[in-house]
Amino acid sequence: MSGKLLIIGFGPGSFEHITKRAREAIQESEVIIGYNTYVDLIAGLLTEQQVVRTGMTEEVSRAQEAVRQAKQGKKVAVISSGDAGVYGMAGLVYEVLMEQGWTREDGVQVEVIPGISAVHSAGSLLGAPIMHDSCTISLSDHLTPWELIAKRVEAAGMADFVIALYNPRSGRRTRQIVETQRILLKHRSPLTPVGIVKSAYRDREHVVVTTLADMLNHDIGMLTTIIIGNSATKLYEGLMITPRGYQRKYTLGAETQPLKPHQRLKSEAEPWALEQLDEQDWDESMEDFDEDDELMDDEVTESKEPSLLKSSPNLSPSNSLQLAMEALQLVSKGTEVVPFEFDNKLTATQSIFEFAVSPGIANKKLTAAQLCALGEIVGDRGDIEYSPHHQLIVRVQTNNPKQITSELSVLGLLLSPIGDVAQIKACDFCNLEKGESIPYAEAIHNRIGNLEVPKELKIGFNGCGMACYGAVQQDIGIVYRKEKFDLFLGGKTVGRNAHAAQPVAEGIDPEELVGLVGRIVERYQKEGHPNERFHKYFKRVKEIEGYRHQEMVGFVIENAICGD
């Protein structure tokens, strides 16, 4: 018996913005499969359906389960917020079907039900920011290499697209939005209007209209959609309006138009069209533009009355590109356009260098000289953030990161990369008074510290049995007790079902510790799936270095909408 897959986009989450077909599809389904938060958002539409809910990053398992149950003859709904075909589940379900050799003729039926995407719900709250050519870019680099994302941001900025940013920032991904702003400021005025919309059409909806230069001073997270205007986007009554270009042919304040309907599509009225820009005109026009020139060049933005609307329909310009640029200026008439340039300290080739700083593995005290050096390096072009892991996160704009690292290393500071690397979190060994185990912590750091791993890995190290620094709650916990070591594996540090690591060994001889921990981390590095946390990896492989995984027993907690 052939089942059916209903891949449903239910919009921003409010019932009034769920389409009639999406409601019907949910009601006719026998099984509902979705991310916990999404299931909660449509709970009011559920009746007797079987519900399969999973956590974040479990998209593949959801798609596989949906296909499996559909093959059993069931009607299965796979739900996504927004539109299922825009960073949703539609593409992934099809990928799983393709892997299994699915055909439209003989396989399960598939229906994709469209919904309102975040760019549209956010756009409606901001006014009309996406009236002209636009694009969407996700800043999440969990599945897409950052180099490719940066190229797309660069291309969209150069092409003057209105840009909608999805997944702009998370608790751990903070640098991507900063880099995106830096790239766009090479191509757009700092005064470019920007809309920041959080939880559109949900209980905690929040809307901010700001500028490209100021956007990072506002709250941005995973529930946020950012819309960045193009060079024509205006601010009016707190709204973002992107004209489509009607001003080139129409006088919006006049009842009688200078061009009659039969004249508006004539070639003379569209000197900017491709057909009108013959090869000679194009080559001559482009000689005036250097490839590094900005769209906001003084020659282009010089205030003048556009000549198109006060000319006759029979006008034949000698420089059609210039006329087109004059017409474009009409779009931004009444909006102050400020030419801009970078000062001598910041050039368009500079990047933001981000790294972690600490006094050492065991030492927790910074000297005045170290603090002064950090302050001088950061200056007005960077910032310092104190992290929960007892590190200073430094972000500074520079084109010479090696000079910075060498200066700080000479001062005895320990520098570490940010991201999915292995790091030692050691206690202060009672102000270094209980220092017998410090050499082992430093040896572990020398072997696997800063090693690139599938997901950020914290190795907690405590110098006595009190374990007051919380080593047993980390991914890997090490406690020095009675001149030997106890080992803990698979702690879950975040989430409502957070739990301590599993005690797997007591009394490990000191000479065995470094090699043992190194082998565990190196195996995780080789065998872990991308973005797979250590506790999930331990559960999946079931055994590491002879230590078997044991299921943690916890409370069953009813899922709540994210943020509640």
Outline of the structure:
The chain has about 575 residues and is α/β, with parallel strands linked by helices. The protein is built from 16 helices and 24 strands. Strands 3-2-4-1-5 form a five-stranded parallel beta sheet, sandwiched between helices. Strands 7-8-11-9-10 form a five-stranded mixed beta sheet, sandwiched between helices. A five-stranded mixed beta sheet has the order 18-19-20-21-22.
What does it look like?
The protein is of the alpha/beta class. It is flat. Strand 7 (134-138), helix 6 (146-158) and strand 8 (162-166) form a beta-alpha-beta unit. The chain has helices at 20-28, 36-41, 59-71, 90-99, 118-126, 146-158, 175-184, 279-286, 298-301, 320-331, 368-378, 401-410, 429-432, 438-448, 510-527, 534-541; strands at 4-9, 31-35, 50-54, 75-80, 109-113, 127-128, 134-138, 162-166, 193-198, 206-211, 224-228, 234-236, 239-241, 351-358, 382-386, 392-398, 414-416, 422-426, 457-462, 476-481, 484-489, 502-508, 543-544, 547-548. It is 28% helix and 21% strand. Helix 3 packs across helix 4. The strands form 6 sheets. Strands 3-2-4-1-5 form a 5-stranded parallel sheet, sandwiched between helices. Strands 7-8-11-9-10 form a 5-stranded mixed sheet, sandwiched between helices.
